[in-house]
Amino acid sequence: MQRKALYGLLLVALLVGPFAGVYPVFVMKVLSFALFAAAFNLLIGYTGLLSFGHAMFLATAGYATGYAMQTLGATPELGLVAGTAAAMLLGLVVGLLAIRRQGIYFSMITLAFAQMVYFIYLQAPFTHGEDGLQGVPRGRLFGVLDLSSDLTLYYVVAAIVVAACVLIVRIVHSPFGQVLIAIKENEARAISLGYDTDRFKLLAFVLSAALAGLAGSLKVLVLGFETLSDAYWTMSGLVILMTLVGGMGTLFGPLLGAALIVVLEDRLGDLGTWLASATGIGWFNSLGESTTIVTGLIFIACVLAFRRGIVGEIVARFKPLRASSS
35, CA 20 to 30 Å: which among 126, 208, 242, 248? Predict the structure, then answer.
């Protein structure tokens, strides 16, 4: 009941956000990264597979959606489908080759593929190299909804992200999801029970890639551009940080972690200016240029102080209280 009440409050906050002075484009960016982190959490938090190359799915979907809408004249819904399908296909190819390995070897294979994809996009003519895709139109959804309006696009993006998160919850609580958790906890035992663990891990990898691709397609639709930064290895590291800070293996943790990291990256400069004016210390003005250092310190603090992440630590604290009260 507490979890349902929390999700209800979040849904209400999404609905009234634009009318409470919240900048819609910024919230849509946060929602896109939240879905990206939730997709990554499905792989690492519930299947136990650490991918160092998940940024390739975000970027692939972004380029596919941007190219389809800008060059081929596709509608927004077709652009989203094209981006998600491209990420899913790439996930299938990478998964077939990487899933045969375990542990650090699996992670290194995904990183190698991600770097290869990055250099392909750097040289490919349709990505425009370092300039990226610029001026991607939003178009009209199903020929009816004009997405040039930030408010209209906001509710479309919110509805898609909520539906994707509901799908993730359904996957986790389904028999398929329970097998994934069993594989994470003890793969040898899952094999002894007759499960084809490689097939289950491949399905989880493809699903995670598709959802990450959907996040990349939404991001392009919102911001109107796609660049190489989404394909670089630092983006894969950023989604790992989001998941760990929020709480790996929890449903709400990656969403919170993504929101915190994106807000930190976008508002750190404003915070530094405010601190400089309030304290008279001019060094705070340089905080906006030290985002990497600050996020690195947050990661260190997370590893040392609360290894379960914010939500994971809260859940761990409340479980004994609920057990004693019952």
Answer: 126
Structure token digits, residue 266: 């976008």
Q: Which of 52, 48, 308, 51 has its CA nearest to residue 179?
A: 48
H helix intervals, 99-196: 104-123, 150-173, 175-185, 187-192
26 close to 266: Cβ distance less than 8 angstroms? yes
Nearest to 181 by CA among 209, 199, 211, 201: 201
pLDDT, tens digit, 9 for 90 and up, residues 163-176:
999 999 999 999 99
Neighbouring residues of 167: CB distance < 8 A, sequence distance ≥ 6 = 211
Distance between CA atoms of 277 and 269, rounded to whole angstroms? 12
In tens, the pLDDT along 17-59 reads: 777 777 888 889 999 999 999 999 999 989 989 999 999 999 9
Rounded Cα distance, 182 and 204, in Å: 13
Q: Express each pLDDT in 111-134 by its tens digit.
A: 999 999 999 999 988 998 888 888
* Residues 64/221, Cβ–Cβ less than 8 Å: no
Strand stretches in the chain, DSSP E? 140-141, 145-146
DSSP 8-state secondary structure symbol assigned to residue 315? H
Question: What is the C-alpha R_g of the chain?
Answer: 20
Closest C-alpha among 18, 77, 25, 20 to residue 217: 77
Return d(Cα 165, Cα 39) in angstroms, integer: 9
